[in-house]
Amino acid sequence: MTAPQATEELVAPPPTERSRLHRPWRALVALVELLVAGGLVLLAFWAWPRGFATITTVVGDGTELVSTRIYGNWLGGAIGFGTVAALLVLDALRQVVLAVRTRPKRAKRAKNSDAKVASED
């Protein structure tokens, strides 16, 4: 039995441009995501009470029977709204981190060149 022949895999060439993660407009995206998440939380609080209905029945001898009916579609919707809101908050946090990420320090070169200019005077 022989080993299978290795096939030559295609490898994508490395990107020629450096990708820039630091983009200040990401802060605006984070703000919009937080606003949408707040709206979804309000929707969740609006939908949750609609998932319960109290039914009161009076029997012939005067006994009151109280039961609660649960509507899963409303409760599932409220849970879904809350879950999507939590994911949006996490993504907004990521966007903020990428928006305010520090850049590599280039100030050392400028200070050294300023010091050389000052020493030459």
| Low-confidence runs | none
Order of strands across the main sheet: 1-2
Kindly provide the radius of gyration, computed on alpha-carbon positions and rounded to a whole number of angstroms: 31 Å
What distance separates the N and C termini? Answer: 80 Å
Number of E-state strands: 2
- Summarize model confidence as the mean pLDDT: 83
Strand fraction band? 5-15%
Sheet with the most strands? 2 strands, antiparallel
Topology overview:
Blueprint: H1 26-47, E1 52-58, E2 64-70, H2 72-99, H3 107-120
Antiparallel strand pairs: 1-2
Helix pairs in contact: 1-2
Description:
With about 120 residues, this protein is mainly α. It has a domain of about 80 residues. Helix content is about 55%, strand content about 10%. A two-stranded antiparallel ribbon has the order 1-2. A hairpin with a 5-residue loop joins strand 1 and strand 2. The longest helix is centred in the last third of the chain and has 28 residues. The mean pLDDT is about 85.
List keywords for this structure.
121 residues; mainly alpha; two-stranded antiparallel ribbon; 3 helices; 2 strands; 53% helix; 12% strand; elongated
Précis, in short:
This protein is mainly α. It contains three helices and two strands; from the N terminus they run αββαα. 53% of the residues lie in helices and 12% in strands.
